[in-house]
Amino acid sequence: GAGVSQSPRYKVAKRGQDVALRCDPISGHVSLFWYQQALGQGPEFLTYFQNEAQLDKSGLPSDRFFAERPEGSVSTLKIQRTQQEDSAVYLCASSLAAGAGPQHFGDGTRLSIL
Amino acid sequence: RKEVEQDPGPFNVPEGATVAFNCTYSNSASQSFFWYRQDCRKEPKLLMSVYSSGNEDGRFTAQLNRASQYISLLIRDSKLSDSATYLCVVNLFNNAGNMLTFGGGTRLMVKP
């Protein structure tokens, strides 16, 4: 489809495992964002890419979280040594330009850590 | 204190009612403002932008008061399909880009 695509849709992992979440932004979109949404809360910013450059990672909760976008298109959010508090929906959004503009969200990956 | 605050609700209203949601934000340098709608287990979707002059889109009216750092959304003639969580969103464009800051959302349930 033409929208932001995220995979997997659902992920269950045991505490301590590493996970990788994928985001395919809308083709040609320069900006890509990752957000974390806990149950009953609004999304919270994690990190931002402009093309392949990670310009802001101030929202990443710990050094166990790592994101990359090596070719300026697909992005991967990796969480190492997962903890139960990492359980959340991880949303990816993209926007066409680097400046202000509407962000288009994917369906998210629902991560459950047992 | 959260940067964007909303009453979580839920607001339970009958069909046809008018309902209003409010939101306050703490950063006076915020530059643009939005209301997003999020259905259960779905992604947030842009409902409308919010301008100082106020703007209307059908049954939805949004207002921004920069002096009070306050944003509102008014829904007239509520429909069952309006049931969702409404997220107040603030954009503080900085050198790092176009980061959106979300409120916790206000849940609306419209009943027959």
Outline the structure in words.
The complex is a heterodimer of chains A (114) and B (112). In chain A, strands 2, 4, 5, 6, 9, 10 and 11 form a 7-stranded mixed β-sheet that branches. Chain A has a 4-stranded antiparallel β-sheet with strand order 1-3-8-7, with no helix packed on it. In chain A, 0% of the residues lie in helices and 48% in strands. Chain A is mostly beta strands. Chain A has strands at residues 5-7, 10-13, 19-24, 31-37, 44-50, 53-56, 65-68, 75-79, 88-95, 104-105, 109-113. Chain B has 112 residues and is mainly beta. Chain B is built from no helices and 11 strands. Chain B has strands at residues 4-6, 11-14, 19-25, 32-38, 45-50, 55-57, 60-65, 70-75, 84-94, 97-102, 106-111. In chain B, the strands form 2 sheets. In chain B, strands 2, 4, 5, 9, 10 and 11 form a 6-stranded mixed β-sheet that branches. In chain B, a hairpin with a 2-residue loop joins strand 6 (55-57) and strand 7. The A-B interface holds A 31, 33, 35, 40-45, 48, 50, 55-56, 58, 91, 93, 95, 98-103, 105-108, 110 and B 4, 8, 31-32, 41-46, 87, 91, 93, 95-105.
